[in-house]
Amino acid sequence: MSGLQTQDLSSALGLTKASTDQTPAVTSSSETKPKKKICCACPDTKKLRDECIVEHGESACSKWIEAHRLCLRSEGFNV
């Protein structure tokens, strides 16, 4: 009987492994979904944008704001 239980257990583990192997494939096929959180994407342009806004105000920093938006769009965010 223990041989049958081992076989059932390995079959169940095989099914579990197969189902988990398929999960990443589904998410990787969706390339439009961002891979990072928006707060962690584009740290360089975010820093420049934030520093400019603090020092000069939002109206004077449209160049940096747009650069950050372009970077976020290239990372897959819809901004």
TrEMBL record:
Region Disordered: start and end of each range?
Answer: 1-33
Under Gene Ontology molecular function, one entry of this record is:
copper ion binding
Q: Enumerate the residues binding Cu cation.
A: C39, C40
Where does it localize? Mitochondrion intermembrane space
Q: Which domain of life is it from?
A: Eukaryota
* Record field: compositional bias (Polar residues): 1-10, 17-31
Which controlled-vocabulary keywords does the entry list?
Chaperone, Copper, Disulfide bond, Metal-binding, Mitochondrion
InterPro entries, from UniProt?
A: Cys_alpha_HP_mot_SF, Cyt_c_oxidase_Cu-chaperone
In the UniProt record, which is one GO cellular component term?
A: mitochondrial intermembrane space
Can you tell me which family this protein belongs to? Answer: Belongs to the COX17 family.
The UniProt entry, under PANTHER family, shows: CYTOCHROME C OXIDASE COPPER CHAPERONE (PTHR16719:SF0)
* Name of this chain's protein: Cytochrome c oxidase copper chaperone, Cysteine alpha-hairpin motif superfamily
- Organism name: Artemisia annua
Question: What's the source species' lineage?
Answer: Eukaryota, Viridiplantae, Streptophyta, Embryophyta, Tracheophyta
